[in-house]
Write a structure and sequence with these properties.
Chain lengths: 435, 435
C-alpha cells in the first residue's frame, strides 16, 4: 500500500525514521541532492521536547511547541513524508514494516529518539506519569488540575494530602525544571484558583538517586540548582531511590514514604528501538552502538543518530549527551557522509562540539555551563529563554511563546490551566500512533 | 460529599449550572452581594464557541478560545466553583444530583446552553462530526488531517475521493464559517502540505434545507454569503435535505449522492436539558419555556437563560436567538431580579436589545446586519474580527489570537495543522465530563 504511493525514482532512497532534531537536520542537508528522502514519524509534527514541562504546567499551549513536519520541508523536490509507526526492519531484504505497509530503503537512518525508562519497575510505570510527548504533557496537566479539583471536595485529610503532594523522580534538567514550575504554580497560581485549599499542605519533592542534581553539569550548577529549588520550597532528596509506588504512596530507599497521587517520572530514558535491532547491538541505556560515521557496525546501510545512538569513545564512554545539539551535529555530518558513501568516497568521522548545557529552575533562576564559564541567576535565565526561543521551529511559534512568556513574567500567571481532555488511566491508549 | 465541602452560609444559595456567556454574566452581577453563588460546569473553562470553527480548521490553538472559569471570579467573596456534571434536578427537595454528589439550592439557574441536534437521525449522528465543544473541534481537526494522510496512500480512486470531499450540513453561521475556512485550507494550505495530491479532487459542499443561507439574517447577507462561498469554490446546495449517511456516502433529497468521509454537522441545536425538566416544559428546539423573568412557570425557584431557554413572545415566537448577547443580557437582568425576589421586591421583565448579527466567510469576506444597516466585504470582515477579539475573555487570549490572525493574514497560512491526538470513532468517550 505505502510503496505504491511513493514516488518512483532511480535515485537511491534514504529513509529517515523520526522527525526530531537529528532527523530534521539530516533531511534539510539533503535538500534537492541526488537522493530520494523519505521521512516517517508517528506524528505529523516535530515536538520541541525541552519545553514539554511548560505545557504540563500550564505555561504554554501545546501547539506552540509543535511544528508541522510537512511545512519544514515545503518546496523540497526530493522529499516525501508519511505519518507511520515503524514496527520492524528486515535488514537482509532492506525493508521496513510499518503501520501503512512495507517500505523499501537503500539507506536507513534511525532517528527515533528516546523513551522513558522505568528500569523494569512495572508498578511505577503504571501509576506514575512520564512526559516525553505532547499528549503525555497534556495528560499531566489534566491530572494535576483534576487532583486539585478532587482535593477540594475530599473530606479525608490523608487522601486530600496525597492529592496535593507532588513527587518528581529524577534530578536531571527535566526533573529540576518540572519541580521548579510546580513550585511556581504553588506560589502564584493555585492559591488564587483554590482559595479554599490550604496551599501549605501542598508539598513538592524532588528525588534523585545520585548525590547531585544535574549530574551532567558542573558542581556549581548542581549546587546552585539545589539552592534555588529549596528557596522555592521544594524538598530535594538526593542519594535516594524509589522502591515502589502503588498509586497512593511512594516508598523511598531512605525509609520515608510519601502519600502522593502525583508522581512524575523523569528518572531515565532509553533508546526507542524497533524490532530487527537485536539486543547485542545496544549499549547501556538501550542506545544503539554506532561507529564514528553513525553506522551500525553489523548491519549494511543502517545508521542511527541522536538520542537513540551511542557513539562510544574514550571521551564519551556512554555516547554523546542526549541533547539537541548532539543530534543536530550528527545529522549534519551524516548528510555529508551519506552523499560521499553513495559516490564511493571516504566518509569523515563525526566530531562533537560541546556547546555547553543549561537548565532553568524558575523565574530569574537558571544555571548555565559553557566550557569553563559558569553563571547562574537572572542573566542565566535570560540566556536560557533566548536560546530556547530561538531554537523553536517556526516564526509563529516563537512569537506566540514570546507573548506567553512576557505575559507570565509580568502577571505571575499561567494562562492555560485547562482540563481540555480529562485524564484517566483507563483511557490511556495502546495505539502507538496516538502516543 | 460535595455538600460537605461547600461553604456554610446563612445567605440564600444560587446555583448556576453552566459557565457560558449567560452564566458568567449572572455570576459577575452577583459579585459580593448578599447571596451565596455556586457555579457548576463539566469543564474548568469557559469556551468561546463562536471561534470553535477556527480551532477545527487549524487557525487557532484550542487554549486561545478557552478561559479558566476560576480565574474570572478570582477575589469574589461569595463565589464557589466546582467541576461537575449535573445529572438531575429534584425540584420538590431543591436538590441537584451531580457527579460529585448531591447539592442543595435555594435558587437554581439553568445556563446549560445547547447540544447538537441530529433530529433523530441516529446513523448520521454516529458517522458525522459535530462541533460544540473544544474536544469536538480538536477531533475534527485531527480527522480532517488524518483523512488527508490516508488519501495520500490510497490507491482506489473512489475511496480517495471520499477522503478528500467535505460536506458541511447546515447553512447557519457555523456552517458558512466552516465551509469558508475549509475553502481557504484548500486554496492556501493543503497544496503546500500535500503536493502529491491533486487538490482539484477536493470538493466542498454546503447543504442547507431552507431556501437561504444565514436564515436569521437579511436577504442581502444571505445572498452575499452564498456569492462569497461560490467565489471560493464551495458548492452551495439550498432547499436540500440529508436523507442518510453511512460513513462513506451521503445521500441528499435532491437525488444526489456524494462520496465523503468528512461530513460536518451544523444543521441544528437543541437545548441541553437535565433530568427532572419534563418534556412538557419544552418548546420547539428543545428549549425550556420561561416567562419574562426567565423563570420556568411550573417550577419553584428554577430559572433558565441563554440558549437553553425560550422566552416566547409575539416578536420572538421561538424565543430569542441563540447568540451570546441574548444570554449576556438575560444574565444581567436575572441577577437584578434574583436580588429583588430575595428581598420580596417586584422583578422587572426582560427586554432584548438586538445588537445585530454577523458571519464571516473568509479573508476580507464577511456579512454584517445592524438594524437596518447592512454591509459586506472587507470592512465587515474587520468589524467581525474586532468584535470577536474584544469578546474573547482574558487579555492573554486576545493577544495570542490577535498574533495568530495577523500572522495568518500576511502568510496565508494556518499555524496549527497538528494531529495532537488521533481521532477514532472507537475512542469517542461516553463520559460526559470528557466531552
Amino acid at each position: 500500500m505505502a510503496e505504491k504511493s511513493l514516488p518512483v525514482s532511480a535515485q537511491p532512497r534514504i529513509v529517515i525514521v523520526g522527525g526530531g532534531f537529528g532527523g530534521i537536520e539530516l533531511a534539510k542537508r539533503l535538500k534537492n541532492k541526488d537522493v530520494q528522502v523519505l521521512m516517517l514519524d508517528r506524528h505529523n509534527y516535530h515536538t520541541f521536547q525541552p519545553l514539554l514541562y511548560q505545557v504540563a504546567t500550564g505555561g504554554l499551549e501545546a501547539d506552540s511547541i509543535a511544528f508541522p513536519l510537512r511545512k519544514i520541508f515545503k518546496g523540497y523536490k526530493n522529499f516525501t513524508f508519511r505519518v507511520a509507526e515503524v514496527q520492524k526492519v528486515i535488514p537482509e531484504r532492506k525493508i521496513l514494516e510499518t503501520s501503512i505497509g512495507d517500505i523499501k530503503y537503500d539507506y536507513l537512518v534511525l532517528a527515533t529518539g528516546s523513551d522513558t525508562n522505568f528500569f523494569g519497575q512495572k508498578e511505577v510505570e503504571h501509576y506514575s506519569m512520564a512526559m516525553k510527548t505532547i499528549p503525555e504533557a497534556l495528560n499531566l496537566r489534566s491530572m494535576i488540575l483534576q487532583n486539585m479539583e478532587e482535593a477540594l471536595i475530599e473530606q479525608d485529610a490523608h487522601i486530600k494530602d496525597s492529592l496535593m503532594n507532588f513527587v518528581v523522580v529524577g534530578g536531571g534538567p527535566t526533573g529540576v525544571e518540572l519541580s521548579g514550575a510546580l513550585a511556581e504554580l504553588k506560589m502564584h497560581v493555585l492559591p488564587n484558583d483554590y482559595p479554599e485549599l490550604d496551599i501549605n499542605n501542598m508539598d513538592i519533592y524532588l528525588i534523585e538517586g545520585s548525590p547531585d542534581l544535574l549530574g551532567s553539569m558542573s558542581a556549581t550548577a548542581s549546587r546552585k540548582a539545589k539552592d534555588f529549588l529549596e528557596e522555592m520550597g521544594v524538598t530535594v532528596l538526593t542519594n535516594v531511590r524509589v522502591l515502589g509506588y502503588d498509586g497512593k504512596q511512594i516508598s523511598l530507599s531512605s525509609g520515608q514514604s510519601i502519600p502522593s497521587k502525583n508522581v512524575l517520572w523523569s528518572a531515565g530514558v532509553k533508546g526507542s528501538i524497533i524490532d530487527g535491532i537485536s539486543p547485542d547491538m545496544l549499549v547501556r541505556g538501550g542506545r544503539i552502538r554506532v561507529d564514528e560515521f553513525n553506522k551500525i557496525p553489523s548491519l549494511d546501510c543502517i545508521y542511527a543518530l541522536g538520542d537513540v545512538a551511542a557513539m562510544v569513545s574514550d571521551e564519551y564512554p556512554n555516547g554523546h549527551p542526549g541533547v539537541a545539539p548532539a543530534a543536530i551535529q550528527q545529522g549534519k555530518t551524516l548528510a555529508k557522509n551519506l552523499l560521499k558513501i553513495i559516490n564511493n568516497q571516504q566518509p569523515e568521522p563525526f566530531k562533537y562540539n560541546d556547546k555547553g548545557s543549561m537548565a532553568t529552575v524558575g523565574r530569574n533562576k537558571a544555571v548555565v555551563d559553557i566550557g569553563k564559564i559558569r553563571f547562574q541567576g537572572v542573566f542565566a535565565w535570560f540566556v536560557w529563554m533566548f536560546v530556547h526561543l530561538m531554537s523553536l521551529v517556526g516564526f509563529r511559534n516563537k512569537v506566540v511563546t514570546f507573548v506567553n512568556w512576557v505575559w507570565s513574567y509580568f502577571s505571575f500567571d499561567r494562562g492555560t490551566r485547562l482540563i481540555i481532555r480529562r485524564f484517566s488511566r483507563e483511557s490511556m491508549t495502546e495505539d502507538p500512533l496516538a502516543k
